[in-house]
Amino acid sequence: MRLFAFLIPAALAAAPALADTLATVKERGEIIFGLEAQYKPFEFRDENNEIIGYDIDVATEIGKRLGGVVPAPVDTNWSTVIQSLNNGDFDLILGGMTATEERYKRVNFSYPYMDASSGLLVTTGSGIASPADMDGKSVAAGAGTPQINQLELAAEEHGISYSGDIKTYDDDTVAVAAMKAGRIEAYASTLVSLLALAQEVEGVTVIPFTSSKWSQEFTAMAFRKEDEAFRSEINAIIAAMKEDGTLGALQAKWFGQSFVDILPNEAPTW
């Protein structure tokens, strides 16, 4: 997705060995998490340049349940976010990440905390009503997202070919501008983020992007492989937030409805 310079918080840079991240977070009084702040409504900057969104609210609630820990988001480059996590730049990734098999090779996932079904943003009157209708069309997806591979799988499934290579964008708003200018005809991303985007842009609509070639998708937090105690604690908090209605209320706030009933208390694995 998007590119931003960032500074590693001094508290994290000076932290001891990463083997007990949970203890480090509680001692520090901050939970430092990686994201990219141009993925509305998960995370984006308001008129005061502050990062807000669903993930920020989720992190704030987790911090409270860890004993008053303050959330500290790090705005970073999404295409290298897993490498940054494993380098120790932050404690976890909490940034609207879709759990995938490829990512699982490098990180472990939390219990799902949001639906991550895919969608296609198209212009009204484009003639695209299903993935099969993208034959000969110019298509795009967010840089570093699973939707790039899904577009490739969709072409294979439907026996179609696109006009040129699949384009990628670091910013959803840039992708929308490209669509408005006629440079792309379909943009793939998560369904919920596209629905939020379509509410603010005239002349576009969203259609489901599903296939037998990929399974149901979920949004999950990502942890270093060695951070099992930390991940276990966060999983317990996510489960409690589902049970007591807090997570559903936050989803209704940012997405207009709750998705809790379809979210399993089981971390995605492969």
Helix-strand layout with pairing:
Elements: H1 10-13, H2 21-28, E1 30-35, E2 38-39, E3 43-45, E4 51-52, H3 54-65, E5 70-75, H4 81-86, E6 92-93, H5 101-104, E7 108-109, E8 114-115, E9 118-123, E10 139-142, H6 147-158, E11 167-169, H7 172-180, E12 186-190, H8 191-198, E13 204-208, E14 218-219, E15 222-223, H9 228-243, H10 246-255
Parallel strand pairs: 1-5, 1-6, 10-11, 10-12
Antiparallel strand pairs: 2-3, 3-4, 7-15, 8-14, 9-12, 9-13
Question: Describe it for me?
Answer:
This protein has two domains: 10-115 and 217-259, Periplasmic binding protein-like II (D-Maltodextrin-Binding Protein, domain 2), CATH 3.40.190; 118-208, Periplasmic binding protein-like II (D-Maltodextrin-Binding Protein, domain 2). The protein contains ten helices and 15 strands. Strands 11-10-12-9-13 form a five-stranded mixed β-sheet, with helices on both faces. It has a three-stranded parallel β-sheet with strand order 5-1-6. It is of the alpha/beta class and 270 residues long.
Radius of gyration from the CA trace? 19 Å
What strand line-up does the widest sheet have?
11-10-12-9-13
Mean pLDDT: 91
Which structural class do the helices and strands define? alpha/beta
DSSP summary, beta strand count:
15
Dominant shape: globular
CATH class of the largest domain: Alpha Beta
CATH-wise, what's the superfamily of the largest domain? Periplasmic binding protein-like II
Helix tally equals 10
Series of secondary-structure elements, N-terminal to C-terminal: HHEEEEHEHEHEEEEHEHEHEEEHH
Q: Which CATH architecture of the largest domain?
A: 3-Layer(aba) Sandwich
- Spans of 5+ residues with little confidence (pLDDT < 50)? 1-18
CATH topology of the largest domain: D-Maltodextrin-Binding Protein, domain 2
User: What's the domain count?
Assistant: 2
Q: Which percent band covers the strand fraction?
A: 15-25%
The portion of residues assigned to helices is: 25-40%
Largest sheet: 5 strands, mixed
What is the straight-line distance between the termini?
A: 25 Å
